[in-house]
Amino acid sequence: MSTDGGLHVGVFVFDEAEELDVVGPFEVLSAWAEHSAIKPHVSTFSHDGAGVRLAHGLRLVPSRSADDVGPLHVLVYPGGWGTRTLAADPAHLEWLRQIRAQTPVIASVCTGALVLAAAGLLGGRPATTHRDHYDDLAEIDPSVVIDTEARFVDDGDVVTSAGISAGIDMALHLVARLESPDVARAVRRELQYDPDPPV
Q1: Fewest C-beta in 10 Å: which of 36, 85, 86, 130?
Q2: Each residue of 90-129: b (16+ CB within 10 Å) or e?
């Protein structure tokens, strides 16, 4: 938890999370902390505080465990192959429902939306996920209104993004929403994020 009582953002990490789903939003939100008048505190955490091995082999040691991360204002929930296990884990889904009850904003990246849906957090709501997994999302919860065009969908207390790099766009949107578009633009300039694909 932030020692100054300020806004606290937690990025949940787990085995086989997609690397860019984790580090893209983390980079944006950490840069935000440097530009922000409200000085958000951004940290990573795993269930037990132990290190995790991400989908392509990158190993990451989080700052905290779920028990000591403290109250969050924003939870970032990445996607990746590890979501298959978590979406089928009743204890994890119950933990996620409990976190949801006390966290103002939950933001998923990519297939993180599948776990949110499995926990019953997307019922009847607009949402998106990786384009290869629209059918999976619909199968988990047919009531989800899937947006197949948007890079991210902001439904107030739940924000979902499309695949992988879309998490960067979503994180910049969160900066603009939680502080200001000017600060979000300053973060984007610092990161030199100005997509213009060469192919």
Answers
A1: 85
A2: eebbeebeebbeebebbbbbbbbbbbbbbbebbeebebbb
8-191 falls under which CATH superfamily? Class I glutamine amidotransferase (GATase) domain (3.40.50.880)
Count, residues in the chain: 199
Question: How far is residue 112's CA from residue 74's CA, in Å, rounded to a whole number?
Answer: 15
Catalytic residue among 105, 110, 146, 183: 110
- Cα separation, 63 vs 138, in Å, equals 34
Annotate 159-174 with DSSP letters as a single string.
EEE-STTHHHHHHHHH
Q: How many CA atoms lie within 13 A of 69 on its CB side?
A: 29
Its pTM surpasses 0.90: yes
Domain residue ranges of the chain, discontinuous segments joined by +: 8-191
Q: Which of 114, 139, 142 is nearest to 128 (CA)?
A: 114
**Average pLDDT in the chain:** 96
113 vs 197: CA distance, rounded Å:
26
Q: Residue 146's beta-bridge partner residues?
A: 127
Residue 45 β-bridge partners: 12, 64
Residues of the chain with pLDDT under 50: 1-3
